[in-house]
# Entry
Amino acid sequence: MDRAVNRLVAWLTEPVPRGRVAAFRTLIYLFVAADLVIFTPWVRNHASTPGDLYQPLLIGRLLPLPVPTPLLVHAIFWILLAASLAASTGRAPRLLGWTVFALYFEWMIIAMSYGKVDHDRFGMLVALAALPTAGRARHGDQTGTEAGGWALRVTQIAVVCTYFLAAWAKLRFGGLDWVTSSVLARAIIRRGTDFADLIAGVPYLLVLAQVGIIALELASPVIFVLRPRWRNWAVAFFYSFHAITFATITISFAPHLAAITSFLALEKVRPVVWVRGFGSRNRGQVKEHERPVV
Amino acid sequence: MDTLTRRGRAVRVAVAALGTALLLAGTLWGGDDDFPFGPFRMYSTAPDPDADAPDTRVEGVDTTGRTVELTETNSGLRRAEIEGQQQAYVDNPSRLRQVAIAYAARTPGAAPLKEVRIVIRWVGIEHARPTGRSHDQVIAQWTAP
# Structure
């Protein structure tokens, strides 16, 4: 028993290179900025929504958070945009990290308090809550960090929960009949693309897709026992699932897609170093191993 | 390597356990109100394979007599938000006046709306596939006095 607990604790805090935490941090905070402007810009529209239509969620009633006003909505938008861009540099990870988390959480509560709750950002919220605890991290640093390992692990767990518990919710709300129901046909009627209309015309294809979705969701925890190479393939499979979803019913799950990168060896992605290397080679400088042997 | 202190490790394990417990409880017994720990219930219902599918829209008629579809862009309200509060609009159609106000705020210069209605287009489904047939039903309507 003790050994099992120790192994679980070691797994939860398995060290990762600091460079991975730095890259994940930059990616997540840049995503927050992009989310404000590109992916969910409609949240800002609630500045002009009459307060009568505001129906605060449990968390909004408990805290208790104010009814959004134009001043509140625009102030959060601009401060959050500035804070997330500053946080993406990796400076002041605690102060900026907690600021971004608090503001983004309130931003989401505003977003979800007018009658529709989205389910695409649990992993993102967990990443934002965990990153401030991961400590300082420089890009490219190979030193291991357990605090950083925990931050990435809990984000991974949140990502897998988003799939696995979605299957659970289907059994709870739809029951076993979900698999043969007209749920995808309905989704296509409401927001289907031309590509989706094509698919809907093929007999039994939508029901087959429903079987596939449940299977993918129930099998998602397997990613934790895969070797790194296969884990990357599993991540590619997740992304391909979302690509098809977007191509058929234009739902992107963008924040979730950003959180999925917690499974990748992001420290190997060094765009700034690559650009610098390319620039210096163009000026005639070569690295030691690139010198001609004479 | 950066190792955690005993306390640092214990706190992290406890927080992870608490978060997981809340999420499991939300999935088993909770609802959307429990955000962010509510159930991941997107597309989780099981509509009958032969039941017509509702495709909701909100439309208004302005003072020039033009019919305008009210969207996220011109009213600031998402369709799903209108649907989420649908029963409240059916019970009290005068609530749709707020939508007209939101439209006026989001679309300055546009002729004001004298009527707002929620319309459901029922699209036929057979064997879990759309048939292409449909009919419209107005479920809530507000007219300016």
In short: The mean pLDDT of chain A is 93. The radius of gyration of chain A is 22 Å.
